[in-house]
Every structure is written in structure tokens, then in C-alpha cells.
Amino acid sequence: MALAPAEPTAEIRSLATALPATVRLGTSSWSFPGWAGLVYSAPASESTLARDGLSHYARHPLFRTVGLDKTYYRPAPRAEFERLAQQVPEGFRFLVKLWRGLLEREAHHAGTKTTPFLDARVAVDECIAPAIEGLGDKAGPLLFQFSPMRFAGERARREFIADLRRFFAELPQGPLYAVELRASELVGPELGEMLAEQGVAPCLTVHPTMPAPEIQSRELALDPSKPLVMRWMLRGNHRYEEAKDLYAPFDRLVEPDDDSRDALARLARGAIAAGLGVWVVVNNKAEGSSPLSVERLARRIAEG
Known about the structure:
Layout: H1 10-18, E1 23-28, H2 46-52, H3 54-57, E2 63-68, H4 78-85, E3 93-97, H5 105-109, H6 120-135, E4 139-145, H7 154-169, E5 177-180, H8 189-198, E6 201-206, H9 213-220, E7 228-232, H10 240-247, H11 258-273, E8 278-282, H12 290-303
């Protein structure tokens, strides 16, 4: 059977109509065979979906964005971004995770030469320029997602924030840059003020290493002129691989997380009321099936 999008229900169509066009909901990637009947009309292999699934994913009424995760593991050339952009409709936007080689602080401080830690030239040449030029107006947030970090005291924490300030000051203006951290000790006014000064959006995240999204929002004092960027990643009671094994094949909600859903919806409604754009990307490890989590979140946002 030829690959095709699943037929959306009347409720999903109605939900999509009820949400402002500035609210962009989506998932982390699109190549999950377990989404047959939810996103795709019939089962297909992971490789088939990775190659051909995006155009069908983008026809889901609620999906106005998607997370490009593979660019976290290796930089992609401009031609790859162009190919992806051609598969989605006008109005669709990509949230692009940038190469982890720029962000591996431990390797840098260990004195190795394996990663260009916070090297603005490498970031522009190998990651930012190809993405912006290839995606054009379909480029959304360019996300710098740091792995969990520990700091040997207050001085190390301040030095890291200073490193971030220098890095972002050297990047070209124009793209929407976002930072997602996995270190609760960084969440505070000092980081929030630095990001606002550099025009960078904090990416609020649901992840065991971080406080609740509303605490992140309050402590970072979000810039009221920037779109709200959020990612619903992982429940607090599981590790990543544990959740992956427990939830696969990601075709149903295994552990609904109403607290996180409601918090994200409240933050989204606040941004909508302020006239700001909203981005929420959801992972399968949030509740068991990110398409179903997106539906639940959309309902809660629309109720407000």
C-alpha cells in the first residue's frame, strides 16, 4: 500500500481551526512505524518514513512544525535542508537542533580537540548558514540543546554563562536562536538577562534535570518580545532508554502527564494573549505517543 496520511477526525480538524496560526505544535521527528493510523494511513518501515514520510506528516492538521533531530548528531548540508523544505506546505516551520559538537563542554574542558565548543565560526559555516539558506522562510527556531551539566562551584557557572554571551554575540542576527539547558542551577535571572540581552529565547523543557516549565519561565523572566519555545521531552520518573523501551512502538498514551500538559497549555495561552508565537515540540517519551500528546495539548490550549 502506498504511503499516505491518516484521515484526520472531525475533532482534530476543528481543533486545528480553533488554534491561532501562530501556535505551532509538532513532534520530534516523524519516522515512527507505530504511528500508523495516527499520522500515516498504513504501516511502513522506519527507513521508508524517514525518506518519504515528512510530506504526509505535514498534512496532519495539528502539525505546523517538526523537530529536526538528526542535525544534532551531524551537520547537514544546504541541499538536505532544501530537500526537506520542498516537502512541506507554506506556513510550516522546522525547529532545527544544531550539532552537538558545538555544545560538548566536557570534551572541551578535558583539553581534547574533538569538538569546537561554542565556536561561532564553525556554528555559522557548518550549521546556521546551511539551515537558513536551505530552509528559507520555513526555518523556525535554531536550537542549541546542551546535555546535562554539572558545575564545580559558582565561578564555573558564571564562566559558562559568560562563554554563552560571547558565543551569541558573535552569531549573525536574524534567526531565532533558542537554548535548552539540562542544568537546574543555571535557571535564574542572570541567565535570563543574558539571553534577553543577546536576543536568544530560552527553550522551556519538560525533563527530569530541570524544574517545572512554569518555574523556568518565572526564574528566567522571559523576554516579552520573543516567541515562546517549549519542548515536552521526558517524564521525571524514567530515564530516556527506559521510557523508550516502555513506550515503544509509540502508538498509545502509556503514562499521561496531565501536570506537564496543563503547565504547557497555560504558558501557551499566556503567549497567545500577549500576541506572541508559540512553538511546542513533543517527544514520544513524554507520555508514550507524541501525536496523541499533541492532540491533548491542543485541546487544553483551545479550552482556554
